[in-house]
């Protein structure tokens, strides 16, 4: 699922009265947003336990990452509505929209979120602060954001010609290979639509306690009706896949989604990844190789060691078919770090994927480049909620 449309809210305005109320109460909401988010999820899962069992990832809930992501997104969106100088959070909204369609979220579920979120706001701030006027103002913030996302998500579903939410498919595991002690590839076959290079699929498995848990994994290769994914064993879903799922077994997978998509033009491309963040980059390299691309490209990858570099064999095979690609591997065991400044990335489209600290460091390095050496654009993906990227 993919569209070139962007989920912008720049043309949306609060009523003047509500804008003043949101400006006045934003500091109080911002100061308590983490507690509000925690209270919201506790309340919502208490009222709708099926959501925690079957839709939300329990690992992210336990770590608190999902709560932080919600807090950052609400505060960022509200700030944009009341501050004309604040950036339009298009990237934030696009990531949320793609994650939502990869989970089959539909319009009616926004009402559930609304009811429980505003119950949490009132509980944390108190009814003396959350008056009817304050509640009405923040309700307008929520429904503007919800309307932008609902419209965008409908376009994403329509891009694959499916009804809203109809993204889950029963797929058969037709190949399973262990790349390292922690990384395994799976090839899945079923009624799957074509994925854009860099996208992911949500994998659903039923665990021992009966819960259907979901996790997104990048698609590293595809054929008609088939996705191949690489999975690092970390968490309930990946552990279940490695220990319980074998060739011939059936699991669930969603139609491909994700906004980190290789733009198909002649612009030089730079792919930068760390550890299992290599997976969307392998998907992009696979596309370049399959299309016989002569596009100038640079691939920079950081890992703990050569032995831990799970997709080294795959990338080596792909790079042999891509003579125009410059490659550099950096291994921490050798004291090596990715040095983007040492490569010619001027005017390139840069794609980043990895852990939080890695992406923060690479973004700082890119921002420090002089204008004549700067890339044309920077696109990124985290394998966790994207809270820190919103500043």
From TrEMBL:
Kindly indicate whether the keyword Transport belongs to this entry: yes
- GO molecular function per UniProt: FAD binding; heme binding; metal ion binding; nitric oxide dioxygenase NAD(P)H activity; oxygen binding; oxygen carrier activity
SUPFAM superfamilies attached here? Ferredoxin reductase-like, C-terminal NADP-linked domain, Globin-like, Riboflavin synthase domain-like
The superkingdom of the source organism is Bacteria
FAD-binding FR-type domain residues = 166-263
According to the UniProt entry, what is the EC number of this protein?
A: 1.14.12.17
Biological process terms in GO annotation: cellular response to nitrosative stress; nitric oxide catabolic process
UniProt key word Manganese: no
Domain Globin as annotated: residue spans: 13-154
Q: Which UniProt keywords apply?
A: Dioxygenase, Heme, Iron, Metal-binding, NAD, Oxidoreductase, Oxygen transport, Transport
Cross-referenced PROSITE patterns: FAD_FR, GLOBIN
What catalytic activity does the UniProt entry give for this protein?
2 nitric oxide + NADH + 2 O2 = 2 nitrate + NAD(+) + H(+); 2 nitric oxide + NADPH + 2 O2 = 2 nitrate + NADP(+) + H(+)
Q: Which family does it belong to?
A: In the C-terminal section; belongs to the flavoprotein pyridine nucleotide cytochrome reductase family.
Q: What is this protein called?
A: nitric oxide dioxygenase
Q: Which organism is it from?
A: Corynebacterium pollutisoli
């Amino acid at each position: 699922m993919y569209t070139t449309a962007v989920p912008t809210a720049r043309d949306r305005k609060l009523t003047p009265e509500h804008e003043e109320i949101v400006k006045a109460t934003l500091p109080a909401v911002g100061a308590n947003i983490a507690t509000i988010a925690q209270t919201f999820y506790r309340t919502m899962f208490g009222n709708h336990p099926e959501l925690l069992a079957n839709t939300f990832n329990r690992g992210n809930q336990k770590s608190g990452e999902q709560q932080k992501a919600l807090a950052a997104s609400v505060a960022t969106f509200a700030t944009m509505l009341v501050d004309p100088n604040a950036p339009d959070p298009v990237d934030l909204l696009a990531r949320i929209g793609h994650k939502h369609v990869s989970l089959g979220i539909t319009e009616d579920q926004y009402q559930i979120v609304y009811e429980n979120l505003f119950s949490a706001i009132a509980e944390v701030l108190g009814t003396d602060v959350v008056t009817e006027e304050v509640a009405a103002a923040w309700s307008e913030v929520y429904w503007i954001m919800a309307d932008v996302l609902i419209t965008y998500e409908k376009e994403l579903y329509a891009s694959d010609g499916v009804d809203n939410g109809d993204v889950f498919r029963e797929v058969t595991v037709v190949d399973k290979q262990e790349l390292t002690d922690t990384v395994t590839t799976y090839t899945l076959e079923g009624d799957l639509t074509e994925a854009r290079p860099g996208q992911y699929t949500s994998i659903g498995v039923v665990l021992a306690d009966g819960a259907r848990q979901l996790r997104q994994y990048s698609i590293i290769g595809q054929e008609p009706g088939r996705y191949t994914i690489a999975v690092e064993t970390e968490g309930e879903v990946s552990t279940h896949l490695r220990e319980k799922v074998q060739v011939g077994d059936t699991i669930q997978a969603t139609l491909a989604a994700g906004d980190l998509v290789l733009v198909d033009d002649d612009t030089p491309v730079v792919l930068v990844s760390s550890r299992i963040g290599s997976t969307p980059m392998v998907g992009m390299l696979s596309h370049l190789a399959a299309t016989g691309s002569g596009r100038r490209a640079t691939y920079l990858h950081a890992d703990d060691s050569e032995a831990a570099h799970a997709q080294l064999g795959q990338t080596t095979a792909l790079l042999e078919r891509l003579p125009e690609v410059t490659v550099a591997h950096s291994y921490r065991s050798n004291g090596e770090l990715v040095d983007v400044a040492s490569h010619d990335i001027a005017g390139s489209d840069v794609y980043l994927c990895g852990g939080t600290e890695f992406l923060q460091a690479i973004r700082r390095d890119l921002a420090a480049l002089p204008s004549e050496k700067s890339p044309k654009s920077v696109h990124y993906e985290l394998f966790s909620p994207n809270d820190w990227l919103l500043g």
